[in-house]
Amino acid sequence: MAETTQSPNRLTNVIERIAAIRADLAPTAGRIADFIAQNAADVVHMSVTEVAERAGASEGSVVGLCQQLGARGFQQIKIALARDLVQPVQFIQEDLNPADGLADVVAKIFGADLRALQDTQNALDIGELARAVEAIRKAKRIEVFGIGSAAPIAEDATYRLLRIGINARASVDSHVQAITGSLCDRDVAVLTISHSGSTIETLTATKLAKEAGATTIAVTNFGRSPLLSHTDIVLHTLARETQFRTEAMTSRIAQLAVIDTLIAALALADYERAVSTINKTFDVLSIKRV
């Protein structure tokens, strides 16, 4: 059933909210507010880092203004701006429209997914991939962080790492991530999966892990984000859904492709061990099948 009532927690009318408080803002907050109001259509494509740089402010100041506007953080402001600016159907999938038939839906969804894979292949840095393989091979333990839509990707990555004989553990709870990050050391490599690179839970955990001495690896969408400040190695995806939605499938398909590539490279680097472990785990899992 179509939604007919507005949720009390839904943030709307961002530009009007800015106008209402603009006269009372401090100079820094005022610059940020003016930038958002004057560039709303561009802001929905940007990270908090990019907005801070363009407005001549800190990321903390951007988040602070967002909270003054009634949001939990910058991501909620982006979503609210997009909702104010675009047709509701674009929150289902960009480029769709209500007149599309099923054949159109199939063509557009598969086209978007294929484009995300092709763009990600071009964005993936082979040198960074090699560094990630080396870091994981050297580490005694791999911690994998992901939350929300990235959580199943983190769990899949952990499963795949275990299947080739690499000691890995997924943390998909924010409290567990924070504790795990703080308990890392130089023998640990952390693999963080975050499409936006701005998710506060995984951002905090990755920062804690890096401060504790771990080598940090991120699978994140191309562009500037706060996560990059706490990451040693970056494996970029390139999914267009950043424009309006952060929960569609294109980012996860791109992330899975990067993880698949990383696992294959790791397996080839330690071929005998990987094959031996795959065979052993296959035998173990065979008892689970009828």
TrEMBL record:
CDD domains cross-referenced by the UniProt entry: SIS_RpiR (cd05013)
UniProt keyword Transcription regulation, yes or no: yes
Annotated GO MF terms: carbohydrate derivative binding; DNA binding; DNA-binding transcription factor activity
Domain SIS: 132-272
BP term (GO), one: carbohydrate derivative metabolic process
Alphabetical UniProt keywords: DNA-binding, Transcription, Transcription regulation
Recorded superkingdom: Bacteria
InterPro entries reported for this sequence: Homeodomain-like_sf, HTH_RpiR, RpiR-like, RpiR-like_SIS, SIS_dom, SIS_dom_sf, WH-like_DNA-bd_sf
Residue span(s) of domain HTH rpiR-type: 12-88
Protein name from the UniProt record: Transcriptional regulator
Record organism: Devosia geojensis
Organismal lineage: Bacteria, Pseudomonadati, Pseudomonadota, Alphaproteobacteria, Hyphomicrobiales
